[in-house]
Amino acid sequence: MKKTLLAALTLLLTLASVAQEATCFERYEKAFEERGSYTVSDDMHRNVVISFFENGEVYCIQGKARVENGVITSIFFFYDDNTSEMLDRKFYNDNRQAPRITNGISEMITTEDGEKFKVIFIDQLKPKKKKYKEAELPNDL
Question: Is Signal tagged as a keyword (predicted)?
Fold first, then answer.
């Protein structure tokens, strides 16, 4: 009985720790919330992360995105052979307009095929704030 209870408790704790593991998007989102973002300028940004949201799962890929007048106008996906491909389907935000960027992360983007994703402009993430160096106390005090 004790072994069964111990095994069940161990399984429960293991499942709980796996469930609490943050997704790639959640980790970036937390960093941007804590540190903030520089303004995303109108340009081709060659180092972005694209976070896809499918059936309760999240996965991230590398890409690049063009920003014009503060909105995303084109998106490219990178492949493992260092090639890229432009997203050739129409995409838009929830209001069926070009997606805007807030604090370094785009609004939820939907394609005409129903794919949902966000673009994260990781080069715009502000650096971590410096921490004060704690004074060491001598042992003879």
Answer: yes
Query: Over the stretch 94-111, which tens digit does the pLDDT of each residue have?
Result: 999 999 999 999 999 999
pTM of the full structure:
0.80
Please tell me the distance from the alpha carbon of residue 119 to that of residue 117, in angstroms, as a whole number: 7
Sequence-ordered list of residues with C-beta below 8 angstroms from that of 93, at least 6 positions apart, any chain: 99, 100, 107, 108, 109, 110
> Which DSSP state fits 104?
T
CA angle 55, 61, 64 (to 5 degrees): 125
**How far apart are the C-alpha atoms of 53 and 111, rounded to whole Å?**
12
Statement: residue 13 has pLDDT above 80:
no
Residue 7 has pLDDT above 70, yes or no: no
Report residue 103 as tokens. Answer: 């604090």
Q: How buried is 9 (Cβ within 10 angstroms: 0-12 exposed, 13-18 middle, 19+ buried)?
A: exposed
Which residues, in sequence order, are CB contacts of 108 under 8 Å at separation 6+?
A: 53, 93, 94, 99, 116, 117, 118
For the record, the structure tokens of 57 come out as 């799962």
